[in-house]
Structure formats: C-alpha cells, structure tokens
Amino acid sequence: MASRIQAIRGMHDVLPPESGLWQYLEDRVRGVLQSYGYAQIRMPIVEITELFKRSIGEVTDIVEKEMYTFEDRNGDSLTLRPEGTASCVRAGIEHGFLHNQSVRLWYQGPMFRHERPQKGRYRQFHQIGVETFGMRGPDIDLEVILLTRGIWQALGLEGLTLQLNTLGTPDERAAYREHLVAYLQDHAQSLDEDSRRRLEGNPLRVLDSKNSEMQQVIADAPSLMQFLGEESRRHFATVCSGLDDCGVAYVVNPRLVRGLDYYTLTVFEWVTDQLGAQGTVCAGGRYDGLVEQLGGRPTPAVGFALGVERVVTLLRDSAVEQELDPLHAYLVVAGDAAVRPALLLAERLRDRVPGLRLLTHCGGGGLKSQFKKADRSGAICALVVGEDELASGRIGVKALRRESAQQNLSEDELVAFLQRQIVTRGEGVG
Ligand code: ATP
Ligand code: MG
User: Fold this and answer.
1) How would DSSP label each residue in 314-343?
2) Residues 60, 52 contacting (CB under 8 angstroms)
3) Mind giving me the DSSP string for 58-75?
4) How does pLDDT run across 303-326, given as a tens digit for each residue?
5) Which helix (H) or strand (E) element contains residue 165?
6) Which of 122-126, 132-136, 148-152, 275-279 has the lowest mean pLDDT?
7) 310 Cα nearest atom in ligand 1
8) How many A from CA of 48 to the centre of ligand 2?
9) What is d(CA 228, CA 138) in angstroms, rounded to the nearest whole number?
C-alpha cells in the first residue's frame, strides 16, 4: 500500500456534523452583520509579502516568525495572509473606495500563521472580521462593539467579558514609550528573552507578553492613560459612557495593547475563561494610521476579527441548543422500477417546497437497510416510493423521530405535510 498523506500540522478538516456548527455560526453572524448594514468583501488569500511587513510591522510575532512566505515562479515574495485588515486596506486604496466615504465591510475566511499548534491555536484558522473606514468619532467605535455583543446574543453565548483600553495617538504613545522603556530597562533582569528583544524594537509589545513570570513587571509598569491628551481622553470617555448607556459591561485593562502595531485610541477584546490560555475570541479597535501607512490618504478606521475555531468550541461546549439543520426527509426507493419515478418526485418536491432538505437514496439495497440509513441520516421522516405507491399514486410517509404508523399521502398532501415540517421544524410529524 502506498504511504498515507496527512493534513499539515495545525491545519484541520472540518467534518460533518461539526461543519453544521460552523454553518450555524456563519449564518447567525452574517444575519447580525446585515442587520447593521455591513457589506461583504472577498479578498485574495495570497498577497505580496511587503503588504504585511508594512502594515503589521517588522517587530511583531507575525512578521518575525509566523508568516507563510514563499517565492512564486516569477521570483516574487508572496505570503499567505495572516490576517485580513491589511488586504482590506490594500483593496480600499486600490479601488478608491476609502476616500471621503463611510464604509462598513466584513469578510470571512482562512488565515495562516506558523505558530505552535495547541488548543485554540492553529496554523490555518478562520476569522470573521469587520473593517469600517472614514468615521472619526467615537460613535463608530461604539457601534462596532455593540455589533460584537449582538453576535454573542445571536449565538446564545454568555459569559464573555469585554476588555477595553485606549492607545492614544502616535504622539502620546511616543511620550509614553520613553517612560515605559526607562521602566523596563530598570527591570531588565525580570524580562524574558522575547521581551528584551521587543524592548529594542517595539516596547509596548512587552505588555502583551503571555509569559506568566512577566505578569508582575507588567502590572507595575507605568500606564499609558497618564499620557493621554484631552481629545483622546474624551474619545475614550464617550465610548465608555456609550457602553454604559447600552448596558454593556466592560473592564478597562490598561495592559491591553494588541499584538499589531497599527492600532490607535480604542482597543478591545472579548475574552472567556473557558478556553484556557487561548481565551480571546474577538479582538479589535481603531487604526487611524494604517491607510496612510499603506499609501492612501489619511482615513480613520475601526475593525475587529473574531476567531471562528474558538467560538465554535464555545458553542460546542455551551448548553445552548443550536438549531442545526437536519434533513427533513429521506426518500426510500423500493425496487428498480421506482428509481426513476422517485428521482422525478424528489425533483418536484424540491421545486414545490422551498427550504426542503430531502435526500434521495442512491445505490440500491433492500428496504430494511434503506430504513436504517434513513434513521442514521437524522431525517425527520422517511418517504417511501415502491411498486404499491406507484400503482396507487400515493407516497408512504413514516416518522423517524417518534413512534407512529406509516401514512400514505397524495403528492399534494405530501407537499402540504412537508411545508408544515419546515415551519414547525419537525414538531408536527406523526
Ligand atoms: P493571540 O493573542 O491569541 O495570539 P492575536 O492577538 O494574535 O491572538 P488577532 O491577530 O487579533 O489575534 O486575531 C483575532 C482573533 O483571531 C484572536 O482573538 C483569536 O480569536 C483568533 N486567532 C488568532 N490567532 C489564531 C490562531 N493561531 N488560531 C486560532 N485562532 C486564532
Ligand atoms: Mg497571536
């Protein structure tokens, strides 16, 4: 036998029925995004490497050690996207949809980072993200956070905590940076190797360290809040009071800096204590500097990205009854003579009953084995077409999820019956 080829470490197949949970999540999130008037953008998965270097920043985990970068056949350096914001901004500049406009976009899809695979951390993972452009005031920060709350509500997820911080303007950050560097240099002996390196290139990132031994040094570090000017303070206060007015609980976490360089002012994360160390399920904030940094005209922007795998895990573990989409009916085909009429019936039923999920048995086999398959398919009922049914013009209907006798219905009666199943989600079978 030939040797088996397996999926790459950290990259996973999503199999049914788990894929049903993914669809449930995607459908619900899309519903929320549409209810806020956001439109979808679809971007390439591969971009010029330079795009990520320039946007995410050279001194970040992503650019330093996590990117899947390769040379294509033309010798261009390309990278599998590690996140979506850079591509979205690139697209906005390229197509000119950012300037002097208010834009609300969302995207979804795979991202690639060469990290150490563990629970909640993969090398191919998926994000649903939002990017808004052209809105300077704190009202859009608030809207975006409310939208994320709407997502948890639509999914029936509880127990997530909103953490909030402000990173001020680049000037304010520069002033803070000097103080932070001085403090960290005083405590150099307590820093791990990563942090010493970050101290040189990107000292704020030290605050982002996940190393438990560093937490005390981080907790005692000076806070950026003291370096904020009047306008930054007001922006943050308005976001906070808006959240208060909307009944959204939050915790101000002055150590929340986000991994990426391009954030300004508001940053936020939704975290859970149910996923161990990988507790952030959604992260975002304002990034007013990025569009200009990538060659566009100065454009304010706010966005976030949600980690689909982590949310799927929460959904799987939650007590919420997800309305996954079971089959309505499994069509049992009794005898060769019934194969073609059954197929035609199935085609007509799908036309006549919008939303019907009907599986037609293929591959022959006896009644008993077909009923077994029907049962295992999760369908609400079995439909039977055989010699008798063909002769009488009626179709057998047997409930699979509860005890009841088989009924024989005309095609019109069957259509009405299936329509009721769709409305009542199988409650009315029998
Ligand atoms: P972390 O601190 O967990 O590494 P991050 O700051 O690198 O996250 P972002 O770049 O902000 O994450 O991405 C947004 C969200 O995407 C994260 O909050 C998380 O839910 C998810 N995510 C990020 N990296 C991974 C990964 N390697 N595997 C699975 N999900 C991920
Ligand atoms: Mg990371």
Assistant:
1) HHHHSS--------SEEEEE-SGGGHHHHH
2) no
3) SSSHIIIII-EEEE-TTS
4) 999 999 999 999 998 877 776 788
5) strand 161-166
6) 275-279
7) 20
8) 21
9) 16
Among all ligands shown, which has an atom nearest to the Cα of 306?
Answer: 1
- Vertex 51 angle, CA 98 and 114, to 5°: 125
Compute the distance from residue 260 Cα to the ligand 2 centre, in Å: 9
pLDDT above 90 (res 407): yes
Q: How far is the CA of 62 from the centre of ligand 2 (A)?
A: 7
User: Which parts of 8-80 are beta strand (E)?
Assistant: 39-40, 46-48, 68-71, 77-80
**What torsion, rounded to 10 degrees, do the Cα atoms 344, 345, 351, 353 define?**
-170
CB within 8 Å of 320: residues ≥ 6 apart: 155, 156, 157
Check if the beta carbon of residue 306 is closer than 8 Å to that of residue 282. yes
Domains assigned to the chain? 18-168+228-320 (3.30.930.10), 325-424 (3.40.50.800)
Q: What is the pTM of this model?
A: 0.91
- In this structure, the residue with its CA closest to atom 9 of ligand 1 is 283
pLDDT at 133 over 50: yes
Rg (CA), the chain: 27
Average pLDDT, the chain: 93
